[in-house]
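FORM 7B - TANDEM STRUCTURE REPORT

SECTION 1: FIRST PROTEIN
SEQUENCE AND TOKENS:
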Amino acid sequence: MTNSGAHVANKFMKRRFILGLLVLTSTISVAQKQELSLEDAVLKRFSDFYPKGPSQLQWIPETDKYSFISETDPPQLMVQSATESTAKPFVLLEDINAALAEDEPLKRFPRISWTGASTFIFRSKRTYQTYEVTTKTATVLFDIPEGAEHVLMNEQHTAFAYILDSDLYIGKRGGKSVKVTSDGGEGIVYGQSVHRSEFGITGGMFWSPKGNKLAFYRMNEGMVEDYPLVDISTLPASVNLIKYPMAGRTSHQVKLGVYSLNGDPLIYMNTEGAVDQYLTAVGWVPNEQSVIIGILNRDQNHLKLNQYSALDGRIMQTILEEKSDKYVEPEHAPSFVPGSESQFLWMSEKDGFQHIYLYDLKGEEERQITKGKWEAQKILGFDKSQNYLFVHGTGETTTAGKAPDHSFNGMQRYTYLVDFELGGHVLIDSTKGTHSGQLSPNSNYILDRFTSIKVPLEVNLFEANGKMVRMIHESENPLQDYALGQPEFLTLSGANNQPLYGRLIKPSHFDPAKKYPVLVYVYGGPHAQLVQDRFLGAAPLWMYAFAEQGYLVATVDNRGSANRGLEFEQATFRQLGLEEMSDQQQLVDYLKSQTFVDADRLAVHGWSYGGFMTINMLLTFPGTFKAGIAGGPVCDWGLYEVMYTERYMDTPESNPEGFKNANLVERANLMEDDLLVIHGTVDDVVVWQHSQSFLKACVDAGKQLDYFVYPGHPHNVRGKDRFHLMEKVLDYASDRIGPGVK
């Protein structure tokens, strides 16, 4: 052998030795990994196993500084300048306690909101207080009455509104509270979300920009039928009657009132039209002289954005209208351009994707600000020149008929820098994954929280032009000591060549030469996207714990789900449960085509809309699944609430065929496979009547099924009983698809 040959041979032998050592080390490492118990996976998902990040990370007004709470004991408020490399202690918990005139000190750092460069507010027991950092003094802003709910301060922190004994009150700083209404209760609801929060509004009070006036909802649901929920905690059991307007039946009536702190009379906006129309997209014109309300008809296919006088309630004009042959879904209030009394930004899906448009109060659309096959989701703010707009949104989606672009497919989220005049855009950070940006007060910097399928959490600081300044935080993998498989993203071919995105979870000991049973997890309804480019693929930890027992867990987002544009979302209009089956079939076909899948051992599980989907899949594909586990399932859309159902299905009277085809109760006689139905006994979202009606239909048809209830639980089973639920679900699945492959 030549010297060169010997050298090559020695190098080869050394490489084999190193590789062998690496394999041995890897094997030992895997062997030393802990097993994640199902109980821990369920109960510690958002605590021990959630990626740790800077607590209460936020910008400080009037500065280029940001603050966060340290993890030290005791914790302290840290402050760091964007131009400095280290954070410095700013406020100690003991400083706050020393300033409080209370007998019992705070045990942990309170949640704060900065109001100036050196002042922040926080809540302590039944008071709102402000803390001045330079003088180390605390001042009580407001005393919160006992029993007060839905407390909301104005931005100036000079007044606050709240609901007490069903009526609306407003308190001024340094003064007494004023009772604004007096007929609350007995079907009259003030200052809370209406229309079952179906239009993106989760509150019912809206302070004006200068804090001088409050707009608020008044909902009259006295005409809505009572629905009984049985409370077994009393002796004897008692009935809690709730107002639950079902599809096609009488709905509630809503008004918008305005109260002025200067003592002007309380007035209501003259929102003429059908008494059961929807009032949404509530916003103030900056001069506080008028209010903008989105008036949506009950069919939800015609929106009028109206301007009303806040002085006398009269309608001033209709600014714009949007119509659809399916539905219009306004979920954002108008956002006025800083410094302008007439120009505002409006978010609309009218071009097929949710984008931002510039309008003026004359109703003229000046231009479309964002464009493309992606969804603008949130306006972060302008730069100082107002030449650029910062926007949070999805990645591009794939055009039908073209190869999917896996970098931008709707599963990601990015921060966009948009040219306000020309409309072009760039990404602050194009790293594939999910970004969430916080714009600094002077718009010079962005704090970006980033996660991806393999990255738990990073927090990075960027200049507004996209230049990275530094990494602020990198979270350790909280599951690094546990044996868990890595999720994989799937791209399947859907209708019209539209890609469907899925997720497959395998055990860490996966062997492609073996055949594995599979649990398909499904939701499939509007406003949801299960598969996202987040840590662990956005999957709950119970899926990984189950996979480690020798199973695969698979999910796909079918048509009708969110963040893929109107064509994708509205494909299910008036026929819920039909097109979704075609897309779920693509997942089943994919699984069956894989050599490592035992096609004879499949199960399916879902909750709520996913419960509806689970039963529907068993009925549509009999014999495909060994078992289905349906939680809180919608079984008859005629029993579901007005706002949601009628948006996607119209009414039972106008769409009898659609309601009939989607009615699982009427198809119960076709059930062939093992099915477990689970329901909370005080479910006020998908009322218990759904699954009980299905159960009765099964009994009438001589069909056997398994049934389990959670006494006292509403729509979602939470707390320690959540583990009991998942143990029951997975035990039922594994009993029928057999033991996992080890």
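SECTION 2: SECOND PROTEIN
SEQUENCE AND TOKENS:
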Amino acid sequence: MKKGRNRKHLVLSKTFALMLSMMFPHIACAQTPENRQGTELSVYDEHDTAALANYMETGYCPHEIAVWGTGGFYSLGRQLPFGRNNNGFGSAFGVGYTYFWSKNWSLSSGLEYAFYRHKVGITDFSETYAIVDILGNPIDYKTQIDRYSETQKLGLLNIPLSIQYQTGGNHRFYALAGLKIGLPISTKYSGSNAVLTASGYYPDYNQTEIWQNDLGYGIFNLPENSGKLDLSVSLSGTFETGLKWNTGIGTALYTGVFADYGFTDMRKSGYAGKALVEYNSIVPNQPKMNTACILSGHFAPVSFGFKVKLAFSVGCRDWLQAKRAYKNMQSIGKRESDDDFYEFDTAALQAGSSKTDTTPVNPVAVIFADTIRIEAPDSTAARAEQERRAYLETAKERREKYSQSIRKLNGSLGNYALGMVTLTDEQKAVLDDYFKALVENPTFSLEITGYTCDLGTDDVNLRIGQERADLAKDYLVEKGIAPLRTVTFSKGESEPLLPNTSEKNRSENRRLEIKIREHE
């Protein structure tokens, strides 16, 4: 029997090793940029940043594979109405696949091997049932067990099927619920020594025998016993919740808690009607000891504890490559933004600015849904026409490349409403008012800050906000404003006007804020 158990564990180990060996090369291939072939996103430059931001804000990878491990309480059966019940510590490990049909909803399955352990202690338990003794006489056989303990161990190969929901953002809350089918792989129990007191009542003679060991009556010291549990397939419900952490490009770490409860009784029909101690009609002075699981009202796996899962996005190389390209652009984009800021600041110092006029030139104008929010006035000194024209040449080239990349993505992905970097006629009309103010007041300058909602990563939102602010600046420079009279910033998803709890609120948080400053 020991060789059989070892062979079964060896087969199980080899099965999981084979699954892992097949899975990790697939991960490596999916994460390697050199494997990309024939994609329209194969060439990027720093001007494609907003296009990539749009792509990642609305897109997602539909395929995810994962490995996980758990730990906690893994028990069997309901509590016995007598004696001691000790839930055992167990664990599980598994591999799985998840299909996302949207950014928030997914369906997952896989394979999981779980170890369950349960221990019971029985003191002063008695039962009576009718049998026929070795001589063929009907008797009422009464047994009383004292100081008996038993450990039950079960290894289940679980097949989970669950639906998962996750929130948006870089680090996400998730919850899943579903079912698990459990196939018993390793089933065994082991019991300690026990003291048995047995007697037999003969109704035909109205007599009770308590000391005839050869007939199975008296006090017996039962030896240790062990065996296999005769169990069938289990069906359990499962629930899990926690946080999903973005740990890198195409990788995520799930940390959470879980709870499983078995619905079906795993004991086969052979246990029905059996007693804990059976009369041995062949050798009466050697009573048969059964497993204590027959005393349970409902024998099924029950577990709860902690779960850690490492997940990998696969089968979406274009999306992963776009994320890599965008990440590499962040340092370039940040340096460009910093250069604009310090250039403006130096000019202000050279002009000897020390006074700030907070009197509004225009009433506060607020235009939402990827639009402009105009607040209050301020300013700076004018620059030469030559610098303005040089800036326009650079801005024109940047916008042309940006528009080309948008067209490429729009042709394959469709809707980019959330991440679009455009100016509507209404927004241009508001900017025209500020253009007039700058023309009429040479000491005025603008500060334009871009904001987004909470959809997308922090880096993506910072870049989209910057692109929106830069486009507003480009419009003013095209109309004749010197580049250094306008400075742009981005605050991404920070400082929302309203909580990001609905699409209406999010559309109002996607905005530009323009302030006018005046310097002597």
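SECTION 3: OBSERVATIONS ON SECOND PROTEIN
The chain has two domains: 62-314, 329-518.
Residues 18-47, 331-382, 401-417 have pLDDT under 50 and may be disordered.

SECTION 4: SIGNATURE
Preparer initials: ____
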